[in-house]
Structure formats: C-alpha cells, structure tokens
Amino acid sequence: MQTHSFKMMDGNMAAAYVAYRVNEVCAIYPITPSSPMAELADEWSASKVLNLWGTTPEVIEMQSEGGAAGTVHGALQTGCLTTTFTASQGLMLMLPNMYKIAGELTSAVFHVAARSLATQALSIFGDHSDVMAARTTGFALLASASVQEAHDFALIAQAATLEARVPFLHFFDGFRTSHEINKIAVLADGQIRSMIDDKLVHAHRARALNPDNPFIRGTAQNPDVYFQAREACNPYYAATPAIVQQAMDRFARLTGRHYHLYDYTGAEDARRVIVIMGSAAATVRATVAALNASDEKVGVLQVRLYRPFSPEDLIAALPLTVEKIAVLDRTKEPGAVGEPLYQDVVASLVEMGRKTATTRMPVVVGGRYGLSSKEFTPGMARAVFAELAKTQPKTSFTVGIHDDVTHTSLEYDTAQWPTPDPQLTEALFFGLGSDGTVGANKNSIKIIGESTNLYAQGYFVYDSKKSGARTISHLRFGPQPIDAPYLIQKAGFVACHQYAFVNSIDLLRHARHGATFLLNSPHDAQQSWVSLPQQVQQAIIDKNIRFFVINASAVARDQGMGSRINIIMQAAFFALTDVLPTDEALERIKDAVKKTYGSKGEITVRRNFAAVDAALHHLVEVPVPDTISGTITMPPTVSPAAPVFVRHVTARMME
Predict the structure, then answer these.
(1) Is 188 helix (H, G, I), strand (E, B) or coil?
(2) 609 phi, psi to nearest 5 deg
(3) Rg of the Cα trace of the chain?
C-alpha cells in the first residue's frame, strides 16, 4: 500500500483525473454540471499531459452529445480506450449509441454528474432522473457518493469494464458531489496502473474492426434469431457483480479503502433500515449514528452497484433482524407503482424469499427525496425512521417538501440535528455571483486543506442565473475527514460581502452562539451598528456574536481593483479564524494570487498583494451594546396589500 498524496479536488476533477489517465480518446460536448470534466480533459490534452501508456489522449469536441456518443462508439470499434462525460438531456441524446455499445459488449466507461431531466421545467441541478432513464440500455450503473468515491470508482469502473465487457455508467450527484471540494487521497499513477490489466486491454484491441481480422457487426436480425441473440448476453451480466467486487477488493489491497456492492452501516440487530444510493447515504449514516447512540436499532444500506442488480448481495448485506425498510429514490417515475430502486429492492426480497423458502418478508415502503438538489438533512432522514416506526408506515411518500396537494410529505424538524462535532469549524459567506466570493472561498479551502493537516470541504450554493445572483459558500474544516453532504445549519463564522444583504436576508439565522460576524460595510464601527436592522442587532446580542466590519469596497478602490473585494475579505477571514498564523495565511493567499492572476500581468498581481496587505489595517471590531436602541426594521418581502397569491406563494418562494 503506497503513501497517500492528499489534494483538494471537486468531484468532477476527481473523476476526470482518473478517466484521462486510463483512456486514449475523450469525446466531449460540455453540459452542466459535468462540463468541468470535459474542460479539464481538453486542458490537459492541450498541455500534452500523458496517460498511463505515455501518449496524449485525443479530445474531440462534437456539436452535440449525440455526436459525442457516436464518436465514442466509433473509436471503441477501432480498439481505442474511449470515454465521455455528460448529464441530463445530454445523456438522453446518447441513449441510442449506448444501446449499441452495450449490445456489442464493448468495454467503456461514461462519467455522469447526475442531473434532473427537463419535465414541467428545466433544471440544471442534481438528482437521478437521467441515469434512471438510462437503466435499460445495458450499461452497468455504478454510483459513487463522495468526492473520494468519484475518484476511486472512476478507476474501479474502468478495471471492471475491461474484464466484464459490459460498459459502465459511473455516476455521482450533480453539484452535491460534482462541485463539492474536499480533501482526498489522490491515486498514484502506479496504483492506477496496477488496476489495469494489460491482457484485458490487448483483448479489447483485438476485438476491433480490422480488415486483417474480419468480423461483422451492425447487422439486421429477424424474429428467427433476434430473441435468442438478445438472451446471449446473460452470462456476461450474471458475472459482472462478482467482477466489480473483485475489482473493489483489489483496489482495497492497493489503497486501504474498502468498498462493497452494497454496504451496510448501523446496528447489527437493526429493526429499521433505509436503502439509498448517492451522496445522501452519508446523511443517513450521520442520522443512524445519532439514533443508535440513543439506543435505537436502525441502519442504512448504501447501494453502489445498481446495474446489474444483485439480489443475493443485497440480501446478504441486510441484517437478519430487519422488520421494516424504507427505500429512498432521488427521482420520480409518474404512474409507476414505485420508483426504480424501490421496485428492485422489493423484487429482490420476493425473489430471494422464493429461492430460500423464507416466509418472513420485511415491510417495504418507498419514498422520494432531493429532486433537483432539494436539500436532504439528517432531520429528514430521522423523519423517515420515525415513519418506519409506525404500525402502518406511509409508502410513496416525499420528504423535504410540503405537499399540500396530494399529502405525500412527511413532517420533519427543521432545527439542526444532530449536534455538530465541536472540533469542526463551519463558515458561511454571502456574496453575489461574479463578485469573486466563490473563487476566493475555493482558494481558502484549498489553502486550508493543502497547507495544514486539517481536512476541508467547500460547497457553493447559487441558482441557475449565477452571475449577479446571490451565492452562499459553505466551508467546513477540522481534524477528521468530512463527509457531510448537506448545508451548514450552525456556523461559527458568517461573512457578508454585500452590504445590501443586511436589509434583505436573515444573515444570522444559521449563526451559532458565540459566532463571529464579518460585514463589508461602508460605515465606521459606530455607524455600522446603528445602521443594522433591529432583527440583526437582536441576533448579535442574543447569540453573543462578535461583530467585525471592514470597508472592503473602499480598500479595493484605493488599490485600483474596482469592485473586486474577494481577496480583501479572504484576508479578513483568515485573520479572524486563526486556522493558520496570520502571516503564513497572507503568504498563502499571495501564492494563490500568483497562480490565479499571474497570466493577467504584474500590475494585477501587485494590486492584489497591496489589497491583502491593506486588509487587516481596515478590519475593526464593533462594540456590541447590551440592549437595542435602534428602530430600523427589515422590510416585508412583499407589501401587505399584495394579492393573496403573491403573499402566500410568491413571497414564500422569494424568502
């Protein structure tokens, strides 16, 4: 087992890092949220970065995802190791070629940042709608659930497809995993090389269409043989689960990271179990740990290999004591008896019960969560376990929304639960799209993760308008690996980079007692306090919050940086959190400035350096009085005279 090299990466980069090294052709057509995978491959190819075999992969950008899939199909027929990256409607355009690639038993891996499909509306955000629409193509579906798993499973899928000859669709949650930055153990080239069997690569090449070795493909078949030929692939799919597990076992010996087709976590004698796949599995694990600490008997089963589905392995992973199961799907299939994962679990239990003559059948209910990146918290998972505890738990339920039409939703506690690890630092940053806040926080989290022994996680919330819309950056760091795919509820540090937000957003709603609040304010310390809305003042007093202000906009103007305040606020953040000695933190920021802005010229770099140096001289703590004397109140979201629909629907959406 080799020594780990740790780096900060997001899920897209983690997957692309491996995919680029184990392929010779990348056919691309970027689509959100998978675009960074294609862009990174293109960038590396242009920079002549080599793959495992010492050649530069050829990156071919087509005019649509359908064209990219056709290119993949054609390149595979020449014996090239070929991949692509896509999501959502892009994946739908690839389906015809995917049926052919799978029907011809051709080794390949597609990497998908799973995303909603356009139905009543288009959404760029994440769920499993697209990959579930591809489940009948014949591709194996392998689900990773974190940035580390996206990195690892990109390799496991490549190793497995070469042996199984079944093509793989490796997917992870769009945005929640694809855009989360986390500290991961990066695979060394030697480890990657050890997972790829040269004999299997040569076998893949030998199956290429070649005039020296004639072979016919792409035929038309009639009723006399089509059915029989369609069934001929059965042995390959029957063998695939064992091949994937063997690849996982081989990977564990190389890295020490152990995976299984279905991984169970929780009480050995659990009565209630949630079955789930994707990033939300970590959310349920946190819930299970907290509930079992209170003497409950619960567990979670994480599905990693979804196709081919293996009933034997699923049942073997469940505790024998299970009485009730809730299967959570991150998709909706209108008109179906239940969503896809739910139906597979029920069918597996029935089939295995028939084969083993088992008479006891757990109660199984299905539910939906997290469509279009809707937040899924431990409190919501606890509500599912509470529903399972009922004599007749609801099925086909939803959690995370309020369904006042068909009444499918479960009630859940919106307060933070469980209590976060006291060793974990959590910070929130409010900014505007394109104001540099997100970029600065990405640099900050990389500085923390790569310059200290701390683990770090960064996640960035913005809507589809992006530029000019509000952004909220969620940063966590602490001494242990961070696997928390949900938003921060109680932050120890809150920064507001846009002063106007104090009058329109409840900035301190998620600040914990004793937190630090940093505001980019145009006023001095005294005026900053009296200018705050009463609600903000009261929160500062009630939660014993330390309040700091900096006129970052003035500092930026003085240094010739226009409205770019991100570097200034970043310096203030490091000064107030003490995660690094201040002098060291400022040097790290300047190193990041060189990397980020070096190509824009020496003047730009010098201006940023000057802004960093000036930042701390303008950082001021505001004395907080014991009581409120101001009368400024936050305006209502809409006028009280607005129509009923605007007050009760539009206003709530705006809030």
Answers:
(1) coil
(2) -60, -45
(3) 26
Distance CA(83)–CA(22), nearest Å, equals: 9
3-class secondary structure, 537: helix
Query: Is residue 490 exposed (0-12), middle (13-18) or buried (19+ Cβ within 10 Å)?
Result: middle
Q: What are the C-alpha distances in Å from 376 to residues 162, 371, 389, 412, 506?
A: 36, 10, 20, 11, 21
Structure-token match 């990041």, residue found = 592
Instruction: Give the Cα separation of 29 and 40 in Å (integer).
Output: 12
Phi-psi region of 210 (alpha: psi -120 to 50; beta: other; left: phi over 0): beta
Closest CA to 336 of 133, 475, 623, 543: 133
Inter-residue contact 372 to 398 (CB < 8 Å):
no
What's the predicted TM-score (pTM) here?
0.94
> Considering only CA atoms, which of 474, 495, 499 is closest in space to residue 577?
495
Distances (CA, A) of 123 to 79, 367, 432, 460: 37, 21, 21, 17
Give the chain's largest Cα–Cα span. 90
Q: Distance between CA 307 and CA 139 in Å, rounded?
A: 7
User: Does position 543 have pLDDT exceeding 90, yes or no?
Assistant: yes
pLDDT tens figures, 19-38: 999 999 999 999 999 999 99
Distance CA 176, CA 104 (A): 34
